Amino acid sequence: MYKIKLRDGRIIGEGEPCFIIAEAGVNHDGDVDKAKRMIDVAVNAGADAVKFQTFTGEKLASKDAFLATYHKKGAVSNDESLKQLLKRLELSFDNYKELFNYAKTKGIKFISTPFDEESADFLIDLGVDIIKIASFHVTHLPFLKYVAEKQLPIILSAGLSTMGEVEDAVNVIRNTGNNNLFLLQCTSHYPIEAKDSNLRVMQTLRQTFQLPVGYSDHTKGINVSLAAVAIGACIIEKHFTLDVNDWGVDHDASINPVELKNLVMGIRTVEESLGSPIKQISKIEEEIRNVHTVSVVSSVDIPKGTKITKDMLAIKKPGIGIRPKYMDLIIGRNAKIDIEADRLIKWEYI
């Protein structure tokens, strides 16, 4: 089984409870107080971690960068550039330090995605024990190498990339001696339909790279995330917001606080339902098994000394007698006692 241990002793991977990341992203809209309220929501929902994105618009986008369709939902004007939009959504390092400490007091793990080396250094110095790399940087091999050399566990989303590009990324990370890597299947559009999720890619990633896998979910609702856990996701990352009707780039592709809580409860229910791979009669089935399965019974009165024939027997409830598969061992034997019609046949009667 593929597992990774964090510095605080938490183990994430196969056979462990799914690690649920409540992705706040930029749904704080650049407001640190709103970000704190989002942490509260994640805590109330029972998520394992709350995640943000650490960047500056200046370093992330050039003057030639342009808006994707989903960005336009949160643009203040038709003339706003991607660089300008991102600057509006920035939080400062001091803000993130405040959020990190706030999350700590609330008992939830703080994670953030760095988009440049300075941001990565800041987060590591801050004390995060896991780094999330966005799909946008799968092909940014120098950055992956830089982060991997810090030897912290890495969660890498594999959206926007070919299998060959994911392989390049994994090799770069592993070549630093860092084998603490999770791969997340991801379809990087906001939002996507369930049919575009391609959850089976998780199995391909697991088999190819021998790594624990998960799913970064950009669908609406929670069903796809639940399905991902059912087929082996060790990590679920899901965008959430305080209000899906808020104005901004990601709100309508996120789930609301109630849905986030339902997601966590649903994942835990799915995990419980997976149970054991061993097929056996469970303790809670024993009563019903005795009531509803069947046994060999007498279809007529059978006097003592009578040789039992097939037409003297029937198969009926309950299931506490001789199983039907042994009927041939009863036929041809003699009754030791008088057997009343419609009664269970017992070995000591024949």
List keywords for this structure.
alpha/beta, two-stranded antiparallel sheet, 8-stranded parallel β-sheet
Describe the protein in words.
Helix 1 (32-45) runs parallel beside helix 4, helix 1 runs parallel beside helix 10 and helix 6 (141-148) runs parallel beside helix 7 (163-174). The chain has 350 residues and is of the alpha/beta class. The model has no long low-confidence stretch (mean pLDDT 95). The radius of gyration is 30 Å and the shape is elongated. Helix 6 links the parallel strand 6 (131-133) and strand 7 (154-157). The protein is built from twelve helices and twelve strands. The two termini are 53 Å apart. The strands form three sheets. Strands 5-4-3-10-9-8-7-6 form an eight-stranded parallel beta sheet.
Secondary structure layout plus pairing:
Layout: E1 3-5, E2 11-13, E3 19-25, H1 32-45, E4 49-54, H2 57-60, H3 82-88, H4 93-106, E5 109-114, H5 117-126, E6 131-133, H6 141-148, E7 154-157, H7 163-174, E8 181-186, H8 201-209, E9 213-217, H9 223-230, E10 235-239, H10 257-274, H11 286-292, E11 295-298, E12 313-316, H12 327-330
Structure described in brief:
The chain is α/β, with parallel strands linked by helices and 350 residues long. It is 33% helix and 16% strand.
Number of helices: 12
Going across the biggest sheet, name each strand in turn: 5-4-3-10-9-8-7-6
Assembly state (oligomeric): single chain
Query: How much helix, percentage-wise, in residues?
Result: 25-40%
What spatial form do the alpha-carbon principal axes imply?
A: elongated
Strand proportion, as a percent range, falls in 15-25%
- Output mean pLDDT: 95
Q: What Rg is obtained from the alpha carbons, in whole angstroms?
A: 30 Å
Number of strands: 12
Order of helices and strands: EEEHEHHHEHEHEHEHEHEHHEEH
